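Could you please review the protein record set out just below?
***
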Amino acid sequence: MCNLTPEQEERVQRLHAQSLVVNTYGGPFSTPRTIRKWRSGYLENDGEWVPPIKAAVQEKLVPDMRAGGVDCIVAGAGSVDDLGMWLREFQTSSKAIVLAETAADVRQAAAEGRVSFILCAGGLGESDPGNLNTILVYHRLGVRIWSLTHSARNLISDGCSERTGAGLSYFGQRVVQELNQQRILIDVSHLSDAGFWDVLELSETPVIATHSNCRAVCNHERNLTDDMIRALADKGGMMALNFFPYYVKAESPTVEDLVDHIDHIRDLVGVQYVGLGPDFCAGRWEWVLAGWSVRGGVNRAGDHPIKPHPYPKGVKDITQMANVTRALVARGYSDAEIEGILGNNFLRVYESVVG
């Protein structure tokens, strides 16, 4: 970790405390399944039974968010069951959490001393093939961001790991139009390159990559090319950086390696187009398994090391988010630039689409 002077350290603490810190992607695999475990009860590895918790988010997740200074998380709801689980948590954990359907909701929750969650759905072809009414129903239930694919193919488009690399289907084009009509922010992370360019051409509103990095800094198909980053900025959108280790650096990533991606975006289009989408949320997930990419239907396990791969040193879980602020101070970013990266850049784009 970077060495700071006492004055710089004081600035870090002040900046992180006064900023609205937004995690633009909590991770569909960590969040719903962990909250379900907390709600239902579970056995520890030593055989100890941990009883169910009714207000699971309030008791288990909010303390970690507060430890990391995080005010808002974009929460994955990849199925009707996921969505119902979150809606129940907004009831049982209502003393501490808020469903944020607008940027104003995020700001109001922070002013009240509560944290907020923005619901993000994904796909469409998987659970309700070919039915655009799903989008309208999810919107009425509070969903305001939509991830079109995971890394595999669905009825909307190929994902980034499909061999064929096809773009939007005709149905996928209708999905983009419907999301525009409902004022839902479109997420292009995980899309094939062709799908990305189809969305940028078709969408009438800004779009976002909620958790993607720079391909020029770390050459992985999940990351965006320089031309893609320019196109996002030109359309008024932005990208938020993924802390998932494979996409930061091939081996032994650190928080400084993550900030290398921020430097690259700043030099390419400006720092106002970058945020943070760590891809972790509930629980303390310090590493990921080599076979993680099998989830979503694409067998990519052989492309990664067999050993567990740690999250970047310094930002291994949500409690360490202030270390990003620390690294940005060390790199010489201004207060306004840091506040933008931590959350204001995302809130600007979110507000421009959803209101």
Observations:
- The radius of gyration is 19 Å.
